[in-house]
Amino acid sequence: RTTDPPESGSLSMLLAATFIASALAAPSCPGSKAFIHAKCSLTATFPSNTCEEVATEMIARINGENAWVDPHNGGVYTLTSGGPTSAVLTTQRVTGNKKYTDLQKWTLNKEGSGCQVQACSESQVTSVIDYSTNYCDLHNLYCGSQDGCPVAHSDFKYTENFNSCSQNDKSQCVVKAATVGGPSECKKVEVQQDFDLDKYISQKWYIQQQQPTSYLPASQNYCVSAMYTKRSGGLFGYTISVDNKAFESDKSTKHEASICAAVADKNDPAKLEVAPCFLPTFAAGPYWVVAFNDEEGWALISGGQPTVPGTNGCRTGTGVNGAGLWIFTRQQARDDAVVQKVRDLAVQKGFDITVLNDVDQTSCPQ
Fold first, then answer.
1. Which CATH number fits the domain that encloses residue 130?
2. Of the residues 156, 172, 188, which one is the last residue of a structural domain?
3. Are residues 135 and 36 in the same domain?
4. This protein's superkingdom (predicted)?
């Protein structure tokens, strides 16, 4: 026979137990005075190291032992409570420019012969998009050579599982502050001068090459296009609607995204910002028209200033904001000479073009 439904009392107890179990499973967070703020909570598992070994290495990095420096733009950590044998540690990190402070909480639990660490970092000011900063606040205190991270004493093997951490781009975690002039530094990118936005958005664009990002992976390098139209300012002042389309290799599985854009700086109209239309502009990411030739029908687009040193140049991140590099053309059919011309220009501008992959624009759905 079918199983009888639980009595109301049993159901209440079941729901309560489920709620408690879920609450216990989620990493405990340090809290923030800001009602809306960025955060990252995750669980890191170290199968071959004790919790004391993990905590000892974290504290060594915080203390700068063996000349350890935070690889994420030189932030400064402070241990605010706990020690090598503590079950709970709390820390804070001040950004390299000394503008922002994030708080972290770490709960360490023995798991077999290893250690499981439940960790959470929260911004202390109003924020939505943090370019993976809260993730890096956590990641950089235990990451190792497998991710190109410097260590103080111990190089760990570990896995990460995310509880609430949508911005978790590892490429943003090992980044030196970009300034202009040194041999290993990223060249300051100049955008298109005398930019005519009306001409730029007057026709559809077809993407011929693009850098993979979290929202546009290499599996969607087929029949990618973008269409821009003017819109009323609305609540957040966005003045442009953006309709993006991409397909997978079967050219029938379609991915569409409608977002909004606005000029970020009226004195530099080639620097735009984009975001889902329901987000305020402070959460938008950079969209720079680095170069645009209306007569020849091409454009070079970047997700802002590249900050990650690469091959003969620098690249942006691979997450959401501050990510991406694209070559646009008005004609859907690929013209190799035009693509090469824009690639050469990207190199001159200081970009690492090895990140660019071809987009297949053949036999596309109408």
1. 3.30.530
2. 172
3. yes
4. Eukaryota
Same structural domain, 98 and 166: yes
Digit-coded pLDDT (tens) for 126-141: 887 788 899 999 999 9
Give residue-wise pLDDT tens across range 291-310.
999 999 999 999 999 988 88
